[in-house]
Amino acid sequence: MGDYNEFGRLMVESHNSLRDNYDVSCPELDELVSAALEVEGVFGSRMTGGGFGGCTVTLLQASATERAVKHIQEKYHGSPTFFITTPSEGARALSL
């Protein structure tokens, strides 16, 4: 089992670097990340994709999912869409 707190911290550092050093974030992404980080049970959050809009990814405890979704919907000025996923073994060949 990995260190979720450390990984979350690195996610936030990565987001801050993309925002501050590379100028590829935007106010909307920063707002989504900030809102996510206010929720108890969230380890980290960051923008993902090519930047300048798009989406964020947030690592959180499963028990914090509903609380995080509700909080982000209340705090964010737009209409976010959520894709709730769980970790898997990763990419691999499947037998059909």
How does the overall form come out from the CA principal axes?
globular
Q: What's the N-to-C terminus distance?
A: 30 Å
The CATH superfamily label reads GHMP kinase, C-terminal domain
Which radius of gyration do the C-alpha atoms yield?
Answer: 14 Å
Query: Could you say which structural class the secondary elements and strand pairing correspond to?
Result: alpha+beta
Brief descriptors of the model:
single chain, 96 residues, alpha+beta, Alpha-Beta Plaits, 2 strands, globular
Question: TL;DR?
Answer:
The protein has 96 residues and is of the alpha+beta class. The chain has helices spanning 4-20, 27-37, 65-75, and strands at residues 42-48, 55-60.
SSE topology sketch:
Blueprint: H1 4-20, H2 27-37, E1 42-48, E2 55-60, H3 65-75
Antiparallel strand pairs: 1-2
Overview of this structure, please?
The protein has 96 residues and is of the alpha+beta class. It has a single domain, classed as 2-Layer Sandwich (Alpha-Beta Plaits). Helix content is 41%, strand content 14%. It has helices spanning 4-20, 27-37, 65-75; strands at 42-48, 55-60. Strands 1-2 form a two-stranded antiparallel sheet. Helix 2 (27-37) crosses helix 3 (65-75). The model has no long low-confidence stretch (mean pLDDT 94). Keywords: ATP-binding, Nucleotide-binding. One of its GO terms (biological process) is galactose metabolic process. Residues 2-76 form the GHMP kinase C-terminal domain. InterPro entries: GHMP_kinase_C_dom (IPR013750), GHMP_kinase_C_sf (IPR036554). GO terms for molecular function: ATP binding; galactokinase activity.
